[in-house]
Write a structure and sequence with these properties.
The structure holds 2 protein chains of 2 kinds.
Chain A lengths: L1 E6 L3 H17 L4 E6 L2 H6 L9 E5 L7 H11 L4 E6 L4 H7 L4 E4 L4 H14 L7 E6 L2 E6 L3 E7 L2 E6 L2 E5 L3 H8 L4 E5 L2 E4 L5 E2 L3 E4 L2 E4 L2 H15 L4
Parallel strand pairs in A: 1-2, 1-3, 3-4, 4-5
Antiparallel strand pairs in A: 6-7, 8-9, 8-12, 9-10, 11-12, 13-14, 14-15
Chain B lengths: L4 H18 L8 H17 L9 H22 L4 H27 L4 H5 L2 H29 L8 H23 L6 H68 L4 H15 L7 H16 L3 E5 L10 H20 L8 E9 L2 E10 L20 E4 L5 H10 L2
Parallel strand pairs in B: 1-2
Antiparallel strand pairs in B: 2-3, 3-4
Helix pairs in contact in B: 1-2, 1-3, 1-4, 1-6, 2-3, 3-4, 4-6, 4-7, 4-8, 7-8, 8-9, 8-10, 8-11, 10-11, 11-12
The chains are: A alpha/beta, B alpha+beta.
Chain lengths: ~240, ~400
């Protein structure tokens, strides 16, 4: 279940968002654990420690603390939670961008428009019940969370998995590793490097930036990589 | 009637040469079987063809032409291509065969294939078979691959096909005349034949491509000029509407009307005062203009992103790029029967030097495109979601290519 917060002063609009989420549940594999908040203050008050939501729908025009102020406060607590603004004014699009909002939904909310936006949002939400795969390293077998892999490259006859929890080395081929992982969010940037597009911070003409590391994109692989990246950002992957 | 090995060999040479240009094309079901069967049939027809090399000049020319037409028919049964592409590929194949034939003759003339040239027609044909594969391979790796990579044949103006067809068949006719009058071993005739056939290939595959590119560029330039005019007009219109909106709001505030009524009127006209500000002037004008247009047609248009990301682009390029994409999306959603599905979602996201723009809308049709830019909203699968579609995909691609 994906924990979702709806911060909206209108009960009618909250019900509408909930109905749209149900529509998304009926058309995809996603399941949501929905929490409603009638004001920004109540929403912020519910957060004690790490933000317990993966996705927040935030109304902009709320009495008291408005949505933009609430979003700024939210960002000080958590920079990763996905934020989608709900507004009746299209002009807020750019302001939303300032607080790293993933998207915004125009009122009156339309379930089809909502579904388009959710399709993309769902690709960005870290999966809690996701798959693991086993890696044989130093005579032992380890279980590795696929989404924790940032990139994989080759060192001699070994493959190195660069994960968020450190590097893991395995005696195998990159092709074999790619087959075992079997995720469309992974793509080759050259013959000996496979990146998880989720962790790509920047793309330049010749390199991909993953945190503090720059990896080279090979000329033959560039077109395929850019297409894969474009599909990922557009929510097609 | 006896089997003539030379005529059968000619059929083989032509059938293989045509493959140089046709091989990457879409093949009909059971292609290997079809090709093998028709190949054998053509050899038999060629070997027993009822016109002989010893017959008159006109009869000889007719024989070569008819044998060529038989190979065209065979290829039509093997490949699923349009008639003009089929004829172009076959004429190009015939030109390559003719070039190879004369290269062999020159080689024989200078003694590289002494045994063959000194022997019978069968021996000469064997000599041709020894050299032909090399020449064909060379043509496949150069012109053949270039043609299919650049889609040269598909994009060719038909007039270039006719011209190439005429050059090849006039050349073949003239060399037959030379042979008929006993000038069989002349290097000059062979050099003329090679030059003429190469010229036919260049005209058909290279020059025609250049002409088609120029035509495409002229169309894009016209579209840009139209966009520029439209941009100036839209900007002026939006400015005027905005001024009128603020005047109206001011006058409303000074009128002696109940507050609720004033608020209600203000709400009703608010849409005319709402200028979208994304951080990019061209995008602001485009989105504001299209929001008004879409609002009237019950279409919801949303944009998420930072227009400032496009500051490295020329204002007109931004206007053209997004204008084209939005126009096509509007055209697609206008045809939807479900009013709730009339939504267009534009998203731009930056990752370093890469900016990804996604335009998503519903559509009712089938979509087919082999490029990154879907080409026709009218040809898509029913009622599914699409991203960035439109008939002017080449215009958008050209704009994007400038900044690669």
């Amino acid at each position: 279940m994906i924990p979702v917060a709806i911060v909206e002063d209108s009960a009618e609009e909250r019900a509408r968002i909930r109905a749209c989420l149900s529509y998304v549940e009926s058309t995809t594999d996603a399941a949501f654990d929905v929490h409603e908040f009638p004001s920004g203050l109540e929403f912020l008050g519910s957060i004690d420690g790490p933000v317990p939501f993966d996705l927040v729908f935030m109304d902009i025009d709320m009495p008291g603390m408005n949505g933009m102020e609430t979003a700024r406060a939210l960002r000080t607590a958590d920079s990763a939670v996905l934020l989608i603004f709900v507004t009746n004014m299209a002009q807020y699009a750019i302001s939303g961008y300032e607080v790293d909002a993933l998207d915004f939904i125009l009122k009156p909310i339309n379930k089809y428009s909502f579904a388009i936006k959710m399709k993309r949002a769902l690709t960005r939400i870290p999966q809690k019940n996701e798959d693991y795969f086993t890696v044989r390293t130093d005579g032992e077998t380890r279980s590795v969370r696929i989404s924790s892999i940032r990139w994989i490259d080759v060192s001699g006859h070994y493959v190195v998995y660069h994960t968020t929890d450190g590097d893991i080395t395995e005696y195998t081929t990159l092709k074999e590793a790619f087959t075992r992982i079997n995720r469309s969010s992974f793509t080759f940037i050259n013959r000996s490097c496979l990146v998880n597009m989720r962790y790509v911070d920047a793309v330049s003409k010749e390199t991909v930036t993953m945190g503090n590391t720059k990896l080279d994109i090979s000329r033959p692989q560039k077109k395929a990589f850019l297409t894969a990246m474009s599909d990922y950002l557009g929510g097609k992957v | 009637m006896t089997f003539n090995f030379a005529k059968a060999a000619f059929m083989i040479e032509i059938l293989v040469a045509e493959l140089i240009f046709l091989f990457p094309a879409e093949k009909r079901p059971l292609f290997p079987l079809r090709y093998a069967g028709l190949f054998l049939l053509c050899i038999v027809i060629g070997g027993f063809f009822p016109i002989e090399y010893t017959d008159g000049l006109l009869a000889q020319f007719l024989m070569f032409f008819l044998m060529f037409l038989i190979t065209v028919g065979a290829m039509a049964l093997c490949f699923s291509v349009s008639f003009s592409v089929l004829i172009s590929c076959c004429v190009a194949g015939y030109a390559v065969e003719h070039i190879a034939f004369h290269i062999v003759k020159i080689a024989q003339h200078y003694g590289f294939l002494q045994n063959a040239s000194a022997g019978s027609i069968q021996a000469r044909t064997l000599a041709e078979f020894a050299l032909f594969p090399l020449i064909y391979l060379l043509f496949f790796l150069t012109i053949g691959l270039y043609t299919w990579k650049n889609q040269s044949i598909k994009k060719t103006d038909r007039r270039f096909h006719y011209l190439s067809f005429a050059i090849v068949f006039i050349c073949i006719g003239l060399t037959r005349i030379a042979t008929y009058f006993g000038d069989d071993g002349s290097v000059t005739v062979s050099l003329y034949a090679i030059t003429a056939c190469l010229m036919a290939l260049v005209v058909q595959l290279v020059l025609s491509k250049a002409v088609s590119l120029k035509k495409e560029n002229d169309t894009i330039r016209l579209l840009w000029q139209e966009d520029r005019r439209q941009f100036a007009l839209s900007k002026a219109t939006i400015d005027t509407i905005n001024i009128k909106y603020h005047d109206l709001k001011h006058k409303l505030s000074n009128m002696n009307l109940p507050k609720e009524e004033v608020d209600s009127i203000k709400d009703a006209v608010r849409v005319y005062g709402s200028r979208i500000r994304t951080g990019n002037e061209a995008l602001d004008v485009l989105l504001t203009e299209n929001s008004l247009r879409c609002g009237e047609q019950g279409i919801t248009l949303t944009y998420t992103g930072n227009g400032a990301d496009f500051s490295f682009m020329n204002v007109m390029d931004v206007y053209s790029l997004f204008g084209n994409a939005v126009s096509n999306a509007v055209e697609a959603v206008q045809k939807l029967s479900d009013p709730e599905k009339k939504v267009i979602d534009i998203l731009s996201e930056r990752r370093g030097e890469m900016i990804n723009v996604t335009v998503t809308n519903f559509f009712q049709a089938r979509c087919r495109s082999r490029t990154a830019f879907p080409s026709r909203p009218k040809q898509r699968s029913r009622d599914s979601m699409a991203s960035a579609c439109g008939p002017c995909s080449s215009s958008r691609k050209s704009t994007v290519d400038i900044y690669r």
